[in-house]
Design a protein that fits this description.
mainly beta; single chain; 1 helix; 10% helix
């Protein structure tokens, strides 16, 4: 997992090197986005046959980043509206390649990586557990250019978790986070 995060950081740095070259002219934009969506957390709880799978919840997030003609880079944070004393937040980054097939719309595919912060509160039967785990995955979607300053993004994001936490006789296995989301992206020219 650590190697995957290092590779994602290295790819981001290498993708930004041409923009920093002296005398190099590149059309870039700064980006700020507000995101909302619906998320499924795939998890299993093992205690004498008791099992919980695929908890659904809403989410909101903020993203800041930059884009060139074919690439976008974001740093992001998301809060997931889990029930009761349960919490789920993520912090990470995305690197996306844009396919500019028409003037009003483009298609993107990308990779993401970061950390997930998970807390499951006690429910009378199961004990509470708290963990921080790295994630990695991919995203895919469309950008609609509403104006020169605003894009509307529709996408799907998959984040692979590989975390197993044992609390007493109970084992929590966190497998993945899958989100369908929409974003409003505000963009402005960088100098």
């Amino acid at each position: 997992m650590k190697k995957c995060l290092q590779k994602a950081i290295l790819a981001t740095v290498l993708a930004s090197v041409p923009a920093m070259a002296d005398g190099y002219s590149y059309n870039t934009n700064s980006l700020f986005a507000i995101e909302g969506g619906y998320t499924e957390l795939s998890a299993e709880v093992d205690q004498a046959g008791y099992s919980i799978q695929d908890a659904g919840m809403g989410n909101i997030g903020l993203k800041i980043g930059a884009e060139g003609e074919n690439f976008r880079v974001f740093l992001s944070g998301r809060y997931y509206d889990a029930e009761k004393d349960n919490t789920l937040t993520t912090a990470g980054g995305e690197l996306q390649y844009k396919f500019n097939f028409s003037k009003p719309v483009n298609f993107f595919i990308g990779a993401n990586a970061g950390m997930a912060f998970i807390k499951i509160g006690p429910d009378g039967v199961l004990p509470s557990v708290s963990t921080n785990t790295p994630y990695y995955g991919g995203d895919i979607g469309f950008n609609v250019h509403a104006s020169e300053l605003i894009d509307l993004e529709l996408g799907v994001k998959y984040m692979k978790l590989d975390e197993s936490v044992t609390q007493g006789a109970v084992t929590y296995d966190f497998n993945s986070i899958t989100s369908a989301y929409a974003s409003v992206i505000i963009k402005w020219q960088m100098n």
